[in-house]
Amino acid sequence: MGYLPQLLAVLVAHGVVEAGVRWNTGSTQAWLALAFLPVPWLLGYGCQVVYTRGHFRLGGALHTTMRHSAPLLHGLLLACGGWDLWLGEVVGHPLSLYDWPSAGHALLALPWLAYELVTIETRTRLYIGRREQRAWRAHQVRNLAATLAPLGLYFGLALLVGLVPDLQVRIEEIGLYEAVFLVVYVALLAWCLPHLIAMAWDTRELAQGERTQRIHALLQRCQLTGTRVREWRTGWQLTNAAVVGLTQRSRLVLLSDALLAQMDDDEVEAVVAHELAHVRLRHVPFFLAYALGCVLMLDLWARHYQEQVWLAGGIMVGGLALWFVSFTWLSRRVELQADLHAMDLVGQRASMIRALEKVGGRLRDVAGWRHFSVRDRVAYLELCGRDPYVRQRLERTLRALAIAASVLFLVALVLHATRLVRVAPTQHAWADLRLGAWSSAQTRTVQEEPELSALIRRASELAPDEMDAQSLALRARGAAERGDDEAASEWLTLAALRAPYEWTQLAATYSQGDRAQARTELYERTQYDNPFLRK
Ligand SMILES: [Zn+2]
């Protein structure tokens, strides 16, 4: 998922401009989208010119800017060109990140994707030798596609749900429905992920031979015969192995081309054994339980301080930072455990250590986020050979933590479910009002929310065919003419629930802002509409 940071930066940029941080030029400048297109190439070219003249610091800075230019340019286009506003005008309604995804939303990211492709092309032409260009470019484009795939799947599912507006509104308003939607999405994602990866990354069957036979024998020893092992063609860019997929049938072990080329049969067997050890020791469910348990608990805690936005945000951000640190600690030890079990599976320490050294290469002393450095991993394997107690201690600690993570997850799940069931009637009532189902809203129990109760009471005056926002606006006008501002404000709020783009602004002004001005606008917008003529 090599383009995840870029994707996150783009999402943050959208969040920032929606919060109102943008250069106000009075009108949108969508042409900037095209004007920015050659910028990554110009930066790359400039970098080369500066390098050849010996200005290495400047060249380095230009290179870094070029590599990260796509999200930067997209952010600039949003902030200075109002790309999202312009696109909203074109499709006929505002495109907010917080709204249900529509086809228009998919176009929002188009400039970023175009800039990313120009950046890939620039890097290919300027820095990659002629013979490797095709493989390198294809590897990068596939990587980009793989990063976008989960979002694309979410989009597809959301667009499908959008075809049934009633269901869409219920999922948006009712936590229980939303939870079911999310579970369906995650299940679909888990099911699709190995297929998506096999498709988005260039993978192929392993060549037949002794090596493949040994891998199959190893799978048999582990009772994981459903698992497929494939070669992952990265254009010799990566020395890596990975396991994806949660179920026996969807599971896939990937061995990169560079790894297969560098290692002998013993070492490849040790690498596969390491990946299978992750499966047998259920590391992925363990990580999922820990991550979901933490996020759900933090969410519950933050909700407690809903009114104090900064405190709630602080709890989430601080909690996630702590989770990140603890996950680094945990993940590194889990990797040690997988190394030890892989050693048991292949029956020797030497090939495991040789394989580790080859993966480490020149970076053997450098630790990654989730791994200790190769030097430390090798030292640990040797230590465990000398002192079995060290291994016992690690296994005991990890077992206790796995149990703790499962308990945390289950408790969080029960607490959330209880909360969702408790608030469901209120949320159903809001959904009813948005859908114009006035009589259904009256059957809900919502005593603890005075605003909602008032709206439901008001809606009970309506005839079943008075469902559209315009009828509600006419009611508001009638109330305003009688001088009943409370009623007028409630009718406008109901109109805003039915047609948010048209009436939200006016409803807010009427209840909290300049009421005289709001009244004038209400009269103007309803003056040609006579309820008696319409009936
Ligand atoms: Zn591992």
Brief descriptors of the model:
single chain, 535 residues, mainly alpha, Zincin-like, 3 domains, four-stranded mixed sheet, 26 helices, 74% helix, globular, binds zinc ion
Task: Name the helicity range.
Answer: over 70%
Q: Globular, elongated, flat, extended or rod-shaped: what is the shape?
A: globular
**Relevant CATH superfamily of the largest domain:** Metalloproteases ("zincins"), catalytic domain
Order of helices and strands: HHHHHHHHHHHEHEEEHHHHHHHHHHHHHH
Level-2 CATH architecture of the largest domain: 2-Layer Sandwich
Low-confidence stretches: none
Rg, please?
29 Å
Number of helices: 26
Strand order of the largest sheet: 1-2-4-3
| Whole-number count of domains | 3
Largest sheet, if any?
4 strands, mixed
The secondary structure category is mainly alpha
Strand content: under 5%
The span between the termini is 58 Å
Q: What are the distinct ligands in this entry?
A: zinc ion
Q: According to CATH, what is the class of the largest domain?
A: Alpha Beta
Mean pLDDT across all amino acids? 89
Q: What is the CATH topology descriptor of the largest domain?
A: Zincin-like
The total count of strands amounts to 4
